[in-house]
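Note to self: the last two entries modelled the partners one at a time, which told us nothing about the interface. This time every component goes in together.
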Amino acid sequence: MRVLGSWMDFADAVDFASRRLQYGLHRSVIEDILPILESKAKGPQQTEAVMEIRARAMLQDEQFQEAAREFGELAIRTQDAHAFRYESAAKILRDNPDGMYILNNSYPPEYVLLDISDGLIGPGPVSLAEPVALEAALHEIASREIDTARRLIREARNLESIDARSARGLTAEAIEALDRADAIVPSIARSYRVELTRRRITAIRNRIDAQAQEFDNQVSTLGSLDMSPYTFRDKIRSLIQMLDSIRDNLNEVVRIANPYQRDLVLELSWAKGDLGRVSEMRQELTDALDAR
Amino acid sequence: MPSTPGKPPTFLAWAALLALVSTPQNAPAHQRLHPGLLREAIEHLHAMQYEQAQEKAMELANCPVDPVPRAWLIIGDARVGLGKYSSAVRAYRLYLSENIPPESRGYVLRKLDKCRRALSTSPSLSPPGELLDERQLSELGRIYAAFFTEYTDNFVVQARNPMLARITASHAQAYLNRISASIMGEQRFPHMVHVYIWANHEEYLQNARDAEDWSGGNFSVRVVDGELTRRIDLTQCGDDGEFLLSMIDRTLPHELSHLVLLERFGDAPCPLFINEGMASLVEWHDNHNRIITAAAALEEDPNLRLHDLLCYEQHDNNRPEAFYALAYSFTSYLYSRIGEEAFGDLLEHIKDGCSVEDSIERALYVPPTEGFLDDLGASWRQHALADAYFLRMLMLD
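The predicted structure of the combined assembly is written out below.
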C-alpha cells in the first residue's frame, strides 16, 4: 500500500503509524493513514492492530469517549492477555471523561531513583492525551493488582496450617491478580511468582523428605528379614513404586522451577541431583528384581 | 443550566450556550466550549507557569454553562507552586467535595497535608544545641550524687542531673514519634525503654550493657526476670568534664533508630547498611563529614559495587567510618528518592526475605531488570560525588 508517498506492507504501515503517534502526529495518522489501513485490514489480527492505532490516535486528539469506545471494543474482540489491558484503558477513560488523570506517583517509577528526568511525568494531574499518561495510569492499575495479590498471599500464608483448601483458593486468586498485573506491565509480577513457586517447592520438598524417610525405613528392613522370594519381590516392587513417586515429585519441582532458572538455581540443582540418585537406586532395585 | 434564580444569564453564558448547542459532537460540554483548555492548564502546571495554569483552570472551574470542578485540583497545585497554601487548601476542598475517583483521593490528601505542614505555626523540634544557652549547657554538665527520674509515654530516663533527665525524656519521645513514622508507618512503638545516662565514660563502661570500649552509647534488648526489657545507655560528660551535647542530638536518636528497626524486623535479619544508614539519617546533626567520607571512599575505590555495600556484614567491617558514611549516603539517597511510603514497603519486602534489589523493584512496582542494581549504583555514586563536591566548595567559601 502507498502511505504518505511511500510503498510499504501492512505491518510496516502499522509500525509507521505507531511511530508517528509517538511524535504527536495524530492528526496525520487520523486523516492520512487510518483510512488506508482500515480499507486494507484483513483478518482479526490486522483489524485489531488498526483498532489500537485508531484508539491511540483518538486519545491523542482528545476524543476521549471515542477512544474509550475503541479500547472497549478491542477488549471484547481480543482473546489473549491484552484484553485486560484494553479493558483497563477503556475504564480509565470512562472514569475520567474530561481526559484528566491524577497520577499518585511519578512515572516511569524508577526514573527518580535512577536520576532520569527526560520523559518523567507526575505525580499530579496529567492529560491522558499525552502518549505516556495512559501508560502511567495503566501502571497504577497493575500496581493495585499487585497489592491485591500481596494481600491474598499473606492471607493464604496465615491460613496454610489451619485450612489448606482455603489457602489454595486464596493463592489461586492471587495468581489471577498477578496475571492481570502482567497483562498490563509484562513481568511486573515475576518476583511474586518466584516467591509462590519457591513456597510450592518447599511444600513438595517436605513431601519428598517424608517419602525418602519412609523409603529408608523400608530399605533397612530388607536385609534383616528372612523373607520368601515372593515377599522379597513384592517388597522391591513397593520400593520401586516409592521411588517413582519421589521421582514424580522431583519432576514437578523441575517443571515449576524451569521458568525461573536464574532465581531458583539451588532448587533446580537439588532436584536434578536427586533425580540422578533416584534413577541409580531404581536401577539397582530393578537389577535385584531381575536377579531373583 | 446553572444560573442564579431571578437573574438573567450573562452575555458570556449565552455565548457559551450557543457554542454548546451548535457543536454536534458527543463530548462533555466543557470540551466543546473550551477545546484543549484543560490540557493547556495541565501543561502550564508542568512547565511551572503557575499563574497561567491557575487562570486557565479558573476559567474551566467557573464556566457558567458547564463548570469543571476537577479543575480545582489544578488550581490547588498551581497555588501550592505559588506558595499560597491557604487558598490551595480551599481549592483542594472544593475538589474533594466532588464525586472523585477514590484512587486520586490519596494524592489530594497528601497535598493537603503538605499545605497544612507549610501553614503550621508550631515550632518544629530543634536540636538542643540551638535551644540551650551557655548557662543551661553549663548546668547540664553538673553531676549530682543522686539519680533523677523522668517519665514519658515510652521512656523512663534516669540521669545524675534533673534538667538533663527532663530534656532527654522530652527529646526521646519526640525523636521516637518521628522515627516510628519513618520506619513503622502507621504502627506505634508500643514498649517502654529505660534510658540510663551515666556521668562519664568510665561509669558508662562499668554499668552499660554490652558496651564497646570506643562507644559513648548503645542499646540492648534482654530478658530480665522473665520480661523483655529495652534499654539505652548514654554518657553525660566527655573526658574534659563538659556536657556531651552530641549525646542528645546524635547518640540518642541513633540508638533509638536501632530499637525501632529491631521492632519492625522482629526475628528477621535487617541488612547492616539499612540499620546503620537509617540510624545515621535520623541523627539531629549535620552529616557533612559523612558525605565527604562517603565520596572519598567512592573515589578511592572506583570498582566499589553497590551490591557489596548491600551485603556488608558486621564481621567484614574493617573500615567502619567508610562503611557508616557509605551506608548513610546510600540510605539517604534511597529514602529521599522513593519517599516514606515506598521505603516502608521496601522494609516490608526485605523482612519477608526478598533481596534488597528485589525489594526496591517491588517497592517501585517495576519488573526485574538485568543491571538495575548497577544502574542504581551508578546514579547514587554520581549523586554522592556531586554532593561532596558542592559541600567542599561551600567549605572553601
